[in-house]
Amino acid sequence: VGSGGGAAVSPTCAQSGNGGGGGCACRLKVVSLASIGGTIDMSGTSGITTWSCGAQYTNGGGGAGGSVWLDCGEIAGSGVIRANGGDGATTSYPAGAGSGGRVAVYASVTDYWTGSLQAYGGTVGGQLGGIGTVYFKNKFFGYGRLTISNNAVVTPRPALIIGRSDECDELQLVRNGMLTIT
What we know:
Blueprint: E1 6-7, E2 10-11, E3 25-35, E4 39-41, E5 49-52, E6 55-59, E7 67-77, E8 80-82, E9 102-113, E10 116-118, E11 133-138, E12 145-149, E13 159-161, E14 170-174, E15 179-181
Parallel strand pairs: 3-7, 4-8, 7-9, 8-10, 9-11, 12-14, 13-15
Antiparallel strand pairs: 1-2, 5-6, 11-12
């Protein structure tokens, strides 16, 4: 089962990886306009193959995605905010890919946001990474929308929601999104 990084609606945890480095935790509070034209990337890194005496020694798994929590007055731009899992090393004995992390965006005005929010699991390795979560809330309306998407990649590892800490008005399972609630 995938999805590290704390609660989907308040992600605060960095992730670790046995091989690739886990993504960091990033919490941004912007009083007025957050204009995202580039990339905020808290993704895990890909695992590496280590060698000893000319022979393959071990393959590292991909690092899990970290977390991004953006709280702003207005969000605008066409950039990317992501916490994807890293790919596993693939020579001889493929290692597993990292799970997607968590992305949460809270904004009062969202009219000019055309960007992308991602928390996909890693797609290369002996096992695919679990699915992460994306939470998007307009602060003036309800609980917001929780999206579970793995970018159309089929994985047996669903996103994980624990307890009632991840309340939302709308739940979207798209592009092979799966969810386990415990």
